[in-house]
Design brief:
There is one protein chain. The chain has five helices and eight strands, in the order E-E-H-E-E-E-H-H-H-E-E-H-E. It is of the alpha+beta class. The strands form two sheets. It has a six-stranded antiparallel beta sheet. A two-stranded antiparallel sheet has the order 6-7. The radius of gyration is 22 Å and the shape is elongated.
């Protein structure tokens, strides 16, 4: 929870979060926000942010999708995925060469990898066959495809009534309203 301040006034508590079911609403994002470059740096490139506003009672939800955030999410996921696969290959070689023999130690090593790379480990199904002493993994393509659809989207929600007037909101970045 963070305190939301707009124009120097306390506007209430805010919870910044990610909603996993946001992908159904991402397709129909509404209003686009044009962010102007800084007057001190006219060559600055600003990314486009699309916003869809939903109000339920006193809670206002803003579904945002940003091109810059999409690139960042994709880069983070790809980097972690390459590291996870490299570590899985190393663990598989350790098991194949007999450096790691006990099943409980192998399961611990698998658990450490899942803990180290939680962002991408959910897209893989890992299995160890104790009889054949073989470590294998399968990619869960449907989960990974859903994650690619969600890249760049996030939800901002507030309990305050600061977003009831949406008219002047389009000229500024929605993220700055939460700082």
């Amino acid at each position: 929870m963070r305190q939301l301040r707009i124009d120097g006034r306390n506007a209430g508590s805010v919870c910044l979060g990610f909603v996993s079911r946001a992908h159904s609403a991402v397709k129909g994002l509404g209003r686009g926000v044009h962010r102007t470059p800084s007057p001190r740096n006219p060559f600055q490139k600003k990314t486009r942010v699309e916003i869809k506003r939903q109000q339920k009672g006193d809670i206002v939800y803003l579904l945002c999708r940003s091109e810059g955030r999409e690139e960042k999410d994709r880069a983070i996921r790809e980097k972690q995925e390459t590291k996870l696969i490299a570590d899985l290959n190393r663990l598989q070689q350790r098991v194949a060469k007999g450096r790691l023999k006990r099943e409980n130690k192998i399961q611990r090593a698998i658990g450490r990898l899942l803990e180290r790379y939680p962002r991408v480990a959910r897209y893989y199904e890992l299995s160890y066959d104790a009889v054949q002493k073989n470590l294998s993994w399968n990619e869960l393509t449907d989960k990974k495809a859903n994650a690619k659809k969600l890249d760049g989207s996030y939800v901002l929600n507030t309990l305050g009534k600061c977003f009831l007037d949406f008219s002047g909101f389009a000229s500024t970045n929605p993220e700055t309203r939460f700082r």
